[in-house]
Each structure stands twice: as C-alpha cells, then as structure tokens.
Amino acid sequence: MDRAKVNGFNVHGILSKRVILDRDTIGYDLFDVQSGKSQPMVYHSEHAEGDGWEPLRGPFVYNVKAFEEANRLLVDAAYQMDKKSLVVADEYGHLEARGFGLYQGLNKVVEALGEGKLLVICRTDKIDNVLRLFNQNETRILVMEAVQKDFMETLADSFI
Asked: For 37-51, what is the mean pLDDT?
C-alpha cells in the first residue's frame, strides 16, 4: 500500500488484522486503510466483548457493526473510484461466499472498478467465488498464491 501511495494512488478499503494473544490467534480487527482506525471484527467467542456478535464458524463469532462499517467503507471507495484508485478487500471468506460479510460492498467496488485497481485477498478455496464477482465486467484479473516465492514483489509490480 505504501508503494501505491508513493506512486500517486488513493488507497481505500479494509484489512483484517490478526489479533494474537500468547501466540494464539484470538481474532481479527477491521482496519480502515485510510483512517488507520480499527475495531473488533471476528473473534473467538471467549474473547468477544459486548453485544452484536453472531456465530460464524466453529468457535468464532463476527461483529455485525464492524461488517456494516466495512461495507460502508467499500461503498464509499466505489463512489471515489478512478484510474488512480486502489481498493483493498481483506478477506473474502465464508460469509462472503454466502452473500454476507463484505459481499455487498465488494460488489459495489467491482461495479465501479473501471480503470481502478482492486486487490481481493481470499483463501484458495474461495478463488472461484471471487472470480464470479467479475462475470459481467471485462477486466484483467491476476490470481496469485501467497506461498509463491516472490509474492509481495510480484503483487506490487502487478498493481502499480
């Protein structure tokens, strides 16, 4: 993202920041790449505090308000999309595959993409779901696996 900013891109979107306690992943926080603000998004149920949490998968729960905010941020990014925009959506997962989570906001970004850039992070078993988002759009798509030796360098060179 820093490389994109240095090259004049407006970077929008969200990251899922891993939260670790005693070497264990206890959850993920929503991180707004523009404001730098974070809020709890997905947590192991025993570490989720407050109201508004819904079951996700296994012992994990998700924060409804965090996903509402994530979608709002993505929709805002869609309205600001131009050829010098890079939108990040981390990550497309189980909720999105069922039409929930980031799905609505991400759809708006795909609709508005034009000459802008979009980085969608997902697990290997969700790649086909992500590719289906682009069904109606003529756009260049690069699919990469993070285990690729030069992943970060190739990713940066591919986008900016």
From this structure: 95
